[in-house]
């Protein structure tokens, strides 16, 4: 059973798939304080939060079992993602599930700002019939500057166009072609400042975007500009905004998000030209159901099938790419494990990965992480996973290099992994053969054809007659059944290797006896101890013996 802790107000209906699932226990605790959360987090496998719960490094230190943190929404700025990554915890979100809600809230705020609706409502509700103080402005034929043309920015732009607005869009990823298709103008920040009657921000809060609307920017804006922020507090420098409104340069602002939440600054909250909502952008029945549904489904997928779609600390890939890469991922983990054993269990110093043939057209980042995890897992066991593997490599001072090559090395797809320490290098080449499955086709400089199995006996020997018989007979004496046997040699009569798949493992005694055979130089049992786990998603510690 997996235990899931749900903090913050998350839609009950949206959590249904988790609540009904026989493998999950869901615990809803929306009112925990930091200390209470820290005291109980150690017993949970997954945590679902909205924006209120702050997931700090300190909290994560107590999260011994935590495998997934799910943000039922988009922004993950309430989660210390780096600390989660270091701990190997997957952080997922639900991008897109609240796009429409946030878009509609932005438009509602823009219209309310233009027509002073909250101010008019307040006075009218208080019994005053004032038809003179609330003359607004129209959106029609006005220019809207959209900073951040991602999902929400784009939807806002589309809807604002239907009001007859001219749209200027700024986003490093906005191409001329997409701008043209949307019927908007691709602009820089300076043009947005100079031309816009309304400006709305829709970027995440990053080092680059913090204070993107500041004194300097506001000084370049048109007089009477109106500003909307339904993205993240901190994108607008609040002090600068208040100054610009007080001076009469900026006509007003509509804010759903604040530098500090809950917002308390009276200069903002009591300013007659600023309208505010308490971070309600995503607060619709539909959006809340959808974010909860999406993260629930993904949590089930992660624990039940290891498929991850929306991790913010993992490479993203489509389901189609994931399905295509699946056989390579399994093989990648296996050759990662084997290559480090071939290096005689030394810690890796340098790792080289080469992809050839069909693989060069795929997004191989996840495959690379899988290979690297296979290597590191020998020494670090299950503390290494696809999330923290790059961090751990860096921490261990291990460098890795990935190259893609269009030549096919005789196979439709081929990957080669080499690991070095000092002057020693171990190398494995592998492929997935259409209709036949995974094969190891190279070990060091020797060509071979071996299907990866749980127990592989690797023997280095002189290429002399009788060697196969002697090895077979000794293993027979110990009741060790041989599944397959493959030999590879560089030249007749020179050095050669033999790789046998065995039905069971063998101990140091057998290995020692093998090395007593004349002409047999080295015998090593290579063991893939997580074969079952790889297929079913659990990992077990590894054990290897060699002589
Ligand atoms: N108020 C709410 O309740 C609410 C609800 C949903 C989302 N949000 C917030 O809205 C924002 C946008 O969400 P989204 O789903 O559209 O995200 P998104 O990732 O689809 O889009 C963000 C866009 O910002 C762009 N960007 C990044 N840095 C930039 C920069 N320096 N200048 C210009 N553009 C830059 C990116 O290229 C990207 O296209 C996020 O901050 C999100 O957290 C708020
Ligand atoms: O959970 C919320 O209500 C806030 C959501 C929003 O800020 C987001 O980034 O998705």
From TrEMBL:
Metabolic or biological pathway: Amino-acid biosynthesis; L-serine biosynthesis; L-serine from 3-phospho-D-glycerate: step 1/3
Signal peptide: none
SUPFAM superfamilies, alphabetized: ACT-like, Formate/glycerate dehydrogenase catalytic domain-like, NAD(P)-binding Rossmann-fold domains, Serine metabolism enzymes domain
InterPro entries: ACT-like_dom_sf, ACT_dom, ASB_dom_sf, D-isomer_2_OHA_DH_cat_dom, D-isomer_DH_CS, D-isomer_DH_CS1, D-isomer_DH_NAD-bd, NAD(P)-bd_dom_sf
Keyword NAD: yes
Biological process per Gene Ontology, one example term: L-serine biosynthetic process
Annotated ACT domain residues: 456-541
Domain of life: Bacteria
Catalytic reaction(s) noted: (R)-2-hydroxyglutarate + NAD(+) = 2-oxoglutarate + NADH + H(+); (2R)-3-phosphoglycerate + NAD(+) = 3-phosphooxypyruvate + NADH + H(+)
Classification via PROSITE patterns: ACT (PS51671), D_2_HYDROXYACID_DH_1 (PS00065), D_2_HYDROXYACID_DH_3 (PS00671)
Coiled coil stretches, renumbered: none
Keywords: Amino-acid biosynthesis, NAD, Oxidoreductase, Serine biosynthesis
Residue spans crossing the bilayer: none
EC code: 1.1.1.95
One Gene Ontology molecular-function label: phosphoglycerate dehydrogenase activity
Keyword Oxidoreductase part of the UniProt annotation: yes
EC class: oxidoreductase
Family as reported in the entry's similarity comment: Belongs to the D-isomer specific 2-hydroxyacid dehydrogenase family.
Biological role stated in the UniProt entry: Catalyzes the reversible oxidation of 3-phospho-D-glycerate to 3-phosphonooxypyruvate, the first step of the phosphorylated L-serine biosynthesis pathway. Also catalyzes the reversible oxidation of 2-hydroxyglutarate to 2-oxoglutarate.
NCBIfam families given in the database record: PGDH (TIGR01327)
Protein name: D-3-phosphoglycerate dehydrogenase
Protein source organism: Neobacillus mesonae
């Amino acid at each position: 059973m997996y235990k899931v802790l749900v903090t913050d107000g998350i839609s009950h209906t949206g959590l249904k798939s988790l609540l009904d699932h026989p493998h999950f226990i869901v615990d809803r605790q929306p009112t925990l304080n930091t200390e209470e959360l820290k005291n109980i987090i150690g017993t949970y496998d997954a945590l679902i939060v909205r924006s209120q719960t702050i997931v700090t490094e300190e909290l994560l230190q107590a999260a011994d079992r935590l495998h997934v943190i799910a943000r039922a929404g988009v922004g993950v700025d309430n989660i210390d993602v780096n600390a989660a990554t270091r701990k190997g915890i997957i952080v997922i979100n639900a991008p897109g599930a609240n796009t429409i809600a946030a878009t509609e809230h932005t438009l509602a705020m823009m219209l309310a700002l233009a027509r002073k609706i909250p101010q008019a409502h307040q006075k009218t509700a208080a019994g005053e019939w004032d038809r003179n103080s609330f003359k607004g402005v129209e959106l029609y034929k006005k220019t809207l500057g959209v900073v951040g043309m991602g999902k929400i920015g784009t939807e806002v732009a589309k809807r604002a166009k239907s009001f007859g607005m001219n749209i200027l869009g700024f986003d490093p990823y906005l191409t001329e072609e997409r701008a043209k298709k949307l019927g908007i103008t691709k602009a820089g920040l300076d043009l947005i400042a100079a031309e816009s009657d309304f400006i709305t921000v829709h970027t995440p809060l990053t080092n680059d975007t913090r204070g993107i609307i500041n004194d300097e920017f506001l000084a370049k804006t048109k007089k009477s500009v109106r500003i909307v922020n339904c993205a993240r507090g901190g994108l607008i420098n609040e002090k600068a905004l208040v100054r610009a409104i007080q001076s009469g340069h900026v006509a007003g602002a509509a804010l759903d998000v604040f530098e500090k939440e809950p917002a308390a600054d009276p200069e903002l909250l009591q300013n007659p030209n600023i309208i505010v909502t308490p971070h309600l952008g995503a607060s619709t029945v539909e959006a809340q159901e959808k974010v909860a549904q999406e993260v629930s489904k993904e949590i089930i997928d992660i624990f039940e099938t290891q498929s991850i779609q929306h991790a913010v600390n993992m490479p993203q890939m489509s389901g189609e790419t994931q399905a295509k890469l699946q056989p390579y991922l399994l093989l990648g983990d296996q050759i990662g494990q084997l290559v480090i054993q071939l290096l005689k269990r030394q810690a890796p110093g340098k790792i080289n990965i080469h992809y050839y043939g069909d693989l060069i057209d795929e997004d191989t980042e996840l495959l690379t992480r899988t290979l690297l995890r296979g290597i590191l897992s020998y020494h670090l066991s299950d503390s290494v996973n696809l999330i923290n593997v790059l961090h751990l490599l860096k921490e261990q001072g291990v460098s890795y290099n990935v190259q893609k090559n269009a030549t096919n090395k005789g196979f439709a797809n081929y990957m080669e992994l080499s690991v070095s320490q000092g002057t020693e290098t171990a190398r494995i080449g592998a492929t997935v053969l259409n209709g036949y499955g995974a094969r190891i086709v190279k070990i060091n400089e020797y060509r071979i054809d071996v299907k990866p199995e749980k127990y592989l006996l690797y023997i280095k020997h002189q290429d002399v007659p009788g060697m196969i018989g002697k090895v077979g007979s000794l293993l027979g004496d110990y009741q060790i059944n041989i599944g397959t046997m493959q030999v590879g040699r560089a030249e007749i009569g020179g050095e050669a290797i033999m790789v046998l798949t065995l039905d069971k493992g063998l101990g140091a005694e057998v290995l020692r006896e093998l090395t007593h055979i004349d002409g047999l130089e080295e015998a090593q049992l290579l063991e893939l101890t997580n074969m079952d786990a790889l297929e079913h998603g659990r990992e077990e510690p590894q054990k290897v013996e060699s002589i």
